[in-house]
Amino acid sequence: MTAPGPRESRIPITASRLAIHLVEWGRPDGFPVVFLHGGAHDASRWSEVCRRLPDTLRCIVPDQRGHGHSDHAPDGDYSCAAQVADLVGLLDALAVERCALVGHSMGGLNALRFAGTRPERAAALVLIDVGTDTRRAGLEAVGRNRERRSPQWVSLPFDARLLDFVPTYGGDAGERRRLLVASKAPLLVLRGARSRILPAEAAEACARLGGGTAITIPDAGHNAAQQNPEAVARALDRFLSSPKFLRNPGRGSQEVRKIEAELGEGLRR
Asked: What is the CATH number of the domain that holds 86?
């Protein structure tokens, strides 16, 4: 069965005194999977993925601080550390001790920091179009938008002060690598075939470092969850539901290509 939902609520975070808007899909007693959206996005970006996942998963999808219907930070602190502290507070409020984490772009870096600093709470880690190394050209494009406060950013429901943190968000490559090694969580790295942010070689290097697997999502760029939600959901379902897939790190290129072919075939049925 696909995931029932959505259910919406607002969760007060004690430490930051912010309220986080939360959307949940699936059974309340299902295995918890936290979905973290990218910068300038919100929880709705995961809807088409979550509705395709089995109801045995409890999909926990927050608007991160300053985004969507969550509170903005009065002090303008949108650092990775501040957002991860919110995540800790959210999970504590929900009495979730351990969960899988799925993060896209900024959300992936938040998931990585959570998993690397609290490995006992991270059951699995999925990074979508973000890794330990990113393509400079993509970051430079984000930086140009930050400098001119492009209308495409201003019109979106988020606090534009977040853009001030983009140049150093999530730390440098060395820090990200240290966090990944420290996490010890089973790892899946997904990238869009047309991504300008995460090249295939960078995704594969990240997966090797974390003892995991890198998969390319067809017919998608950086925003793979919106551009090809069916393939993303199929990859997540396979990763999170199959013990063999979850516990078999470092799959060879032939097996990875087979999985990618299956994802593409599923779209043509």
From this structure: 3.40.50.1820
